[in-house]
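Action item from last meeting closed. Structure (81 res):
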């Protein structure tokens, strides 16, 4: 799986979750960049990403993610195992 493929799938998740077809995430995207991304939506986002990619994030990974790029790095690391 390539980084571009991960971003394509993440964009669909973000667009559906936040009900905004204009959302396009990149490595630097944070909760501050998306209006409705609050703590509750963060939980829903993590759940949707785990389901889409067939993985489970560890609590330290979830609490340590500073942007979408770090999420992508974790997904790619798990995909290559």
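Sequence:
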């Amino acid at each position: 799986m390539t980084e571009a493929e991960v971003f394509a799938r993440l964009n669909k998740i973000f667009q559906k979750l936040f009900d905004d077809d204009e959302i396009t995430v990149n490595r630097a995207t944070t909760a501050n960049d998306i209006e409705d991304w609050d703590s509750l939506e963060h939980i829903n986002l993590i759940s949707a990403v785990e389901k889409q990619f067939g993985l489970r994030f560890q609590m330290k990974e979830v609490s340590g993610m500073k942007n979408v790029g770090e999420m992508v790095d974790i997904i790619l690391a798990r995909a290559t195992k």
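Note appended to the action item: Residues 25 and 33 are 9 Å apart (CA to CA).
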